[in-house]
Design goal:
The chain is an all-alpha fold. 73% of the residues lie in helices and 0% in strands. It is built from ten helices and no strands. α8 packs antiparallel against α9.
Length: 199
């Protein structure tokens, strides 16, 4: 029988995420991962594979613990509020991060995806999940009258996805609340009926 692992896999993945998130894929060495996790190289490789495989597991872990969890939490709110709450949290996380790490998913889209088709496909899957979240919120809001029907749900959900990516990139260099809110505010105004947008 295989020996049980002598470490907490979630804790190790949390540490791996922190390492890759702060340094990026290329600048992170296996030695960095060993030092951050506190486990041996053999244990790291046996559990997760080579550096590329470790990064893939870390990215999956980040998405489920951060991005997907935020979508699940916000989707419990009324649709128009769900979208606002999603971006409110993005701003809060961005301005409270002293290291200006941004979003690990967006960082991977910029740093790794252009050079790795498999990662590009994996990131595309997550971006489509985000787009689908926005689409569900917009459609529900258009049905209950809280979101304007002046634009289609397809266009609005893709616009919101582009807004998210832009805000996350801007936050890496100008993580200022007023700047990020000024980017978000006009975009969210597109969701509102003209009468509501002026009140």
């Amino acid at each position: 029988m295989a020996r049980p692992r002598e470490f907490d896999e979630k804790a190790v993945l949390d540490a791996v995420v922190a390492c890759f998130w702060s340094r990026g894929y290329e600048a992170t060495s296996v030695r960095d991962l060993i030092e951050k996790t506190g486990i041996t190289a053999a244990s790291l490789y046996n559990a997760f594979g080579d550096k590329r495989s470790i990064y893939h597991r870390a990215l999956d872990h980040y998405v489920e613990a951060s991005v997907a969890e935020r979508m699940r939490r916000c989707e419990k709110l009324p649709p128009r509020r769900a979208i606002s709450a999603f971006f409110d949290e993005i701003v809060k996380r961005s301005v409270s991060d002293p290291d200006h790490k941004g979003c690990m998913l967006v960082n991977a889209a910029l740093d790794v995806a252009p050079h790795d088709a498999a990662f590009r496909d994996a990131i595309d899957v997550v971006l489509r999940r985000l787009e689908a979240f926005f689409h569900r919120c917009v459609r529900a809001g258009q049905e209950d009258g809280t979101i304007s029907t002046a634009m289609t749900a397809d266009d609005l959900s893709r616009h919101l996805l582009g807004l998210l990516l832009g805000v996350r990139v801007m936050a890496r260099v100008r993580p200022e609340r007023s700047v990020l809110q000024a980017i978000i505010r006009p975009a969210l105004a597109l969701l509102d009926h003209p009468a509501r947008a002026t009140t």
